[in-house]
């Protein structure tokens, strides 16, 4: 049974340089897309740590990868699933939804003294029209959030987060399951074949 050896450390957030590496690789021949993405994925997954416990390798098994196909929730609960999904979305230049969703999850843990400044940053980065990572939400939700950011609570982005989750569940997640990277990790793709 194919296994990938990975250390037991939490995945680090993807850096801009990781995104650039993924983007550059997309110019290669289509037959190598899955293999190239797999190589890039291995380069961004954590590889070592000075902590003796953290340096013990853990295994990403085919069985764990297969669990990701049960639901988007199962995929996002897995640290390797999350990292793989984020790398896949970056390779398709469509990572704004997962980044927003993760930002909302972090926002819910923010101390109340920092709530206002964080809410404004999220609004400017993801919600306002023409934002750098503008998410696809309806006008009514956008306007409601604009008003809520003036006096934010930990729930002021909940409606947008639900919309984005639904978009990922209906669009990005099925594409991920059909991708060469997922097919390779789950053992469904034969070496040398291309999943089109």
TrEMBL record:
Lineage: superkingdom: Eukaryota
Record region (Disordered): 1-34
UniProt-listed PROSITE patterns: RGS
Domain RGS: 71-186
Gene3D superfamilies on file: 1.10.196.10, Regulator of G-protein Signalling 4, domain 2 (1.10.167.10)
PANTHER family, per the entry: REGULATOR OF G PROTEIN SIGNALING (PTHR10845), REGULATOR OF G-PROTEIN SIGNALING 13 (PTHR10845:SF32)
Name assigned to this protein: Regulator of G-protein signaling 21-like
Source organism per UniProt: Huso huso
